[in-house]
TrEMBL record:
The lineage of its organism: Bacteria, Pseudomonadati, Pseudomonadota, Alphaproteobacteria, Rhodobacterales. It comes from Paracoccus acridae. The keyword Cytoplasm does not apply. One of its GO terms (molecular function) is transferase activity. Its EC number is 2.4.99.12. This is 3-deoxy-D-manno-octulosonic acid transferase. It catalyses: lipid IVA (E. coli) + CMP-3-deoxy-beta-D-manno-octulosonate = alpha-Kdo-(2->6)-lipid IVA (E. coli) + CMP + H(+).
C-alpha cells in the first residue's frame, strides 16, 4: 500500500528537461529545505541559527518539486534535506533517499488521519520511514509517528519553535529607584487596559487591597487620553493615585500608579511580579500586548478567555501551566487576590519564562543534528 500511495503522489508529469533552480552561490555546503505554510515563522529562527553555526551554508527552499525537478535538484550536490512542518514532498524525499542524503523533519504535527489505510496515509508512512530524525511539536504527534512505524530512536518530541523576543528595555537607574520605593509591597500591573475593562481591573485591586493593605496597582490604559479622567474616577472612589505623566512617585500612601499608557512597558514588567494583559477579558484586543513580553521579564501572567491575537503563544503558556486564565471580572478579582502569595507567583513566572525562552532551545535541537550531518558530508 505504501508503494502504491507513493506512485499516486508522484503521478504528476514534469518536463524531462526541467531547469535547475537557481542555486545560491558560494563554496559552502548546500542544504535543501522545504517549509510548510504553518512553519514559516519557525523557519526564520531556524535559518538564523543554522547560519550562525555554519556561516558559509547555502540554503535553498526546494518547495514541492515534481519528480524530474527533484532529480535535477540532486545534481547540485546537496548535503542534506530539512523539512519543516508536516508536508511530506514525495518526489523530493525519494530523490534524496536514493542518494543516501540525511533527511530531517522538524516542527512535525501528525494526527489520527495519518494512521488510516488510505493511499495518502500509506504514502506518508512510507515517506516518514526515510527520515534520519523526526522532531515533533507535541506528545500526541509523537505517539502517532511511532504508530506510523518511525523508529523510537529517531522520533523526538521537542515542542514547537516559539517566537524568541528580546526583553523590552528600561532605564536601570529608574528601575532601581522605584524598586527601593516598592520594597515589601505587593505590586501588580494591568497592561494595555481598554475602557471596557477599567472597572474590572479596579475591582480586582480592591480585592488585592483586602489581602494586603499596601498593595499597589500599576495601570497602563490602552488610550493615554484616559489617564487624567481615569485618575479623577479612581480618586473619587477613595483610592490614592499617582501619575507618571506628572512625574509622581508611587510613595507609601499611593494605591494606584497610572503609567504613560503603552510606554515604558519594560520598566513596569520588571517591577510587577504579576501582570494582567488587557483586552483578553472583554475581547477588545486591538492593542493586546504579546504574552512573552511579561513572561521574558519574570512577571506571572493573568489573562481572559479572548486570546485570538496571539493564539499560539497563549496555547503554549497554558499547556505549560504558565498563565492563569480568568473568565469574568469576579474571576479576575479572585486571581489577583490569590496571587499575592509569593510561591504561586514564582511558579507561574518560572513556567512562563521557560516557555518564552524555550524557542531558542527547540531551535538548537533542530539545528544541531542538521549541522552535524552537513559537517560530515563528503565534499
Amino acid at each position: 500500500m505504501g508503494q502504491l500511495g507513493l506512485w499516486w503522489q508522484r503521478r504528476r508529469v514534469a518536463p524531462a528537461d526541467a531547469p535547475l533552480p537557481e542555486i545560491p552561490q558560494g563554496a559552502g555546503p548546500l542544504l535543501l529545505v522545504q517549509v510548510a505554510l504553518e512553519a514559516r515563522a519557525a523557519f526564520a529562527q531556524v535559518q538564523r541559527r543554522l547560519m550562525r553555526g555554519r556561516p558559509d551554508l547555502r540554503i535553498l527552499d526546494a518547495g514541492d518539486p515534481a519528480p524530474a525537478a527533484a532529480e535535477t535538484l540532486m545534481q547540485a550536490g546537496p548535503a542534506a534535506l530539512l523539512l519543516l512542518g508536516s508536508d511530506l514532498p514525495a518526489a523530493l524525499i525519494q530523490a534524496a533517499a536514493r542518494r543516501d542524503l540525511p533527511i530531517f523533519l522538524a516542527e512535525g504535527r501528525f494526527g489520527p488521519e495519518d494512521l488510516g489505510w488510505a493511499l495518502r496515509a500509506s504514502a506518508r508512512r512510507a515517506l516518514l520511514r526515510q527520515m534520519r530524525a523526526v522532531l515533533v511539536t507535541d506528545p500526541a504527534s509523537h505517539s502517532v509517528v511511532l504508530r506510523m512505524g518511525v523508529d523510537r530512536r529517531r522520533a523526538t518530541m521537542t515542542g514547537p519553535v516559539a517566537e524568541i523576543r528580546d526583553p523590552l528595555p528600561c532605564s536601570e537607574a529608574e528601575r532601581s529607584t522605584l524598586a527601593q520605593l516598592l520594597r515589601g509591597r505587593h505590586a501588580w500591573l494591568a497592561a494595555s487596559v481598554p475602557p471596557a475593562e477599567e472597572q474590572a481591573v479596579l475591582a480586582a485591586h480592591h480585592a488585592a487591597l483586602a489581602q494586603s493593605h499596601r498593595a499597589l496597582l500599576f495601570m497602563a490604559p490602552r488610550d493615554p487620553d484616559r489617564i487624567d479622567p481615569l485618575a479623577d474616577e479612581i480618586e473619587a472612589s477613595g483610592l490614592v493615585v499617582a501619575r507618571r505623566s506628572m512625574d509622581e512617585d508611587p510613595t507609601v500612601e499611593v494605591q494606584v500608579m497610572l503609567t504613560d499608557g503603552p510606554t515604558e512597558m519594560g520598566l513596569w514588567y520588571r517591577l510587577a511580579p504579576v501582570t494582567y494583559l488587557g483586552g483578553t477579558l472583554s475581547g477588545d484586543d486591538a492593542a493586546a500586548r504579546h504574552p512573552f513580553e511579561p513572561a521574558a521579564l519574570g512577571s506571572a501572567i493573568v489573562h481572559g478567555p479572548h486570546t485570538e491575537r496571539h493564539a499560539t503563544e497563549w496555547q503554549q503558556l497554558g499547556g505549560a501551566g504558565a498563565a492563569r486564565q480568568v473568565n469574568s471580572a469576579e474571576d479576575l478579582a479572585a486571581a489577583i487576590a490569590e496571587l499575592s502569595q509569593p510561591d504561586l507567583i514564582a511558579t507561574l513566572a518560572s513556567n512562563a519564562w521557560t516557555v518564552s525562552t524555550g524557542g531558542a532551545d527547540v531551535t538548537m535541537r533542530i539545528c544541531a543534528p542538521v549541522l552535524d550531518a552537513i559537517g560530515k558530508a563528503k565534499p
